[in-house]
Amino acid sequence: MTTVMIVDDEKYVRLGIKGETDWSLIGCEVVGEASNGEEALELADKVRPDLVISDIRMPKMDGIELAEQLRDKYPNTKVIFLTAYNEFEYARKAIRLGVSDYILKPFQDGELEGVIQRLLHLHPNGTAQEAELENELISLKKKEEVSNRYVQAAIEYIENHYSDVDFSVGNLAEALSVSEGHISRLFKSETDSSINNYLTKYRIKKALDYLKDMNVKVYEVADKVGYQDIAYFSNTFKKLVGRTPSEYQNKGLE
User: Between 37-47 and 63-73, two packed helices, what is the crossing angle to 10 degrees?
Assistant: First the structure.
């Protein structure tokens, strides 16, 4: 059971979050509430929450300072910020602190639960940057979501052949009996992505899954997702994820 602490200077907000969320359904339990960062830190020492849901703007100690202190004392505690629209950029800057996610107020029914569930299913210690990346990768167009049959076939081909080190648009076009130029234009029109860019993101999406196994080696993952050159794989991975494959995998050991 994931333990949760709610931090907001408005009591009705705390009560609303606590009372309107089916915590047991998402595998969570609220173990404490606080009205500012100072109270939250004192309470955290007692209850050691797995997850802190905190407002950003609060008296005495705001959410940013709270997140900094929690990061230093309890690096495995995840933080979700509640932020008003005019604080949005402020919240984004908090990603640098390793804040796990943020949500705009007022949020819709089920939205907070969705953020929490997504967070709990991320790689251990996942940050908001990784959450955004994984959302982007997960939302890659599936073949059922495009109308053109050639693009559907192209996506299916990528899903079946992404591990081929000699994958090429030429091979894909030949398999579909169309020209490279034609399938490239169709694919871009339907997915807003080039074939090669889609392939790269799909490969990294699969790599993220493989790296959740702490026993798998990085070179094995590279091979599984179609990269012969481990250095090139690591550079591509870091460009998209913000960490090398080893750094990403090792976060799960902390």
Answer: 30
